Model the fold of this input.
Amino acid sequence: QVQLVESGGGLVQTGGSLRLSCAASGRTFTRYIINWFRQAPGKEREFVAAIRWSGDNTYYADSVKGRFTISRDYVKNTVYLQMNSLKPEDTAVYSCAAGVLGTGDYWGQGTQVTVSS
Done:
């Protein structure tokens, strides 16, 4: 079993920044890729970014490349999503998920990000 807990969401103005955290625990989470997804009201869930727990590979959706950065802290067992130059269209519930690239077997509860115009 893998447990994931997100934090760091909130309200920010256009152009602002937020850093989301995904704290992982469980015996096997290091085997997985940690993905970030988001879902806006009335829209499908979409992939945002991902990182392999072991290795340097990172992956981004085109819509966030150059603005978002995913990273991990081995000591804290936490994956971060640094979000800069935020836009109103980034408003969504952001969730982290452990699985393979682009899919999640284990999910956190989600954290709301709201970008005001």
